[in-house]
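Below is how a single chain appears once it has passed through the pipeline. First comes the sequence as given, then the structure the pipeline wrote out for it. We keep one example in the README because the format questions we get most often are answered faster by looking than by reading.
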Amino acid sequence: MGRDIQAIKISGEDRRNYRDKLRRSLDVFARMLRERLFDEHPSTVGQEIELNLVDDRGMPSMRNDDVLKVIADPAWATEVGQFNLEINVPHRHLDGDALATLEAELRADLNAADAKAQSVGSHLVMVGILPTLSEADVHEGTMSANERYKVLNEQIFAARGEDMRIAIDGPEQLLTHADSITPESACTSVQLHTQVSPDAFAAYWNAAQAIAGVQVALAANSPFLFGRQLWHETRITLFEQATDTRPDELKEQGVRPRVWFGERWITSVFDLFEENIRYFPALLPICEDEDPLAVLDQGGCPQLAEMSLHNGTIYRWNRPVYAVVDGIPHLRVENRVLPAGPTIADTVANAAFYYGLVRSLTEAQRPIWTQMSFTTAAENLHEAARHGLDAHLYWPGVGDTPVTELILRRLLPLAREGLDGLGVNPADADRLLGIIEQRCLTGQTGAAWQISTVAEITRHSGVDRHEALRQMTQRYIGHMHTNAPVHTWPTA
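Resulting structure:
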């Protein structure tokens, strides 16, 4: 939900009007699908990368406003916390040397931004959860200045009616309460966008859902939160809890959470937007002046602003996106399960694996989602988030299997076929998928490296957890700047 909004007071009439506008927008969207008004041959991909800011000691730096001013680039924006930033990477065709070019451009952009950030006493870090973050760093006073976060915070807590309870068990345990949405700011991710035609959308979304657990196991990079060692990808459960509008009573009644895996395979993108309106009350019932039906009747392309804004407050792990670019409507699958980091090389390798594998799965004669229950796909996600590359996941034809064997024996060849089909340079595909292969063979994800390094620092120097995490974070930043993939990082 990247749209800027002003402070508002919301009345019952506002909510009624907004609900009516949502329903009209959905009708218009259905008509646009029937009349095939969308780009039928899209082939572009894009990324959003969220980052953390730290000071010279590796501690959170609450200076995103200052950093954005010195970066002075519209591709960069705030996120929820004052220690967060986000870069939006332009869409491009995925063929030829696109992945190598993406890697080079990202390194150049992030290095330039980091140099500017240093001029105001900050450094950029790509990591799923900043290891040095403490509970004292996440409260309403550390929320970014953008008014939309304040309004969203007010509406989530108005819906919930009580403080957030965050409870996470792992090797250690965390139980805490929050009176704002700022714990969400601990979660920094990489979002992969794929533009697809309406006819192909359901297959791409289903495929992305089916491999979500595999992605998380492979890329886990969030093992520490508030000084405790929890899940390998703690970000998954933290994000689910930190934006939950439901008190316990509504959970018991089966009300859907706003961070949602979903509950079924789909047959059309319409299914997802219709579920949004059927199941979720509006958090930001703000109506625009556009009459979408009148715009469509006059041969124009409606923005469907209310439908898009509502969709932006429902945090599916694979989210549908409607957008209008150069007067033409298009659809995207926004894949949201991956943590940030550890390096640009790892990030682009994760993207290559995803884009190639999804492509192959959508073209399979017997789709994977016809062989696996939707509930199993959801269970795979949480199993992977808990255990990373030590997870056992279910996959049709092999049953419960170590995720590393599944990737090495079945999924990497499919990802390679998919990249070949897209026309990606074979040398680039080999190099990037080789990073994935070596990560599986060594078992060293960002999460595994963080856990091992903290243990090693503690064992050799006897420092407390807080200091071990700080020292580990500084080592992490040093390795991140080399762009050497995480499976090569030493822990001693």
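The two ends are 41 Å apart (CA to CA).

See the next section for the split statistics.
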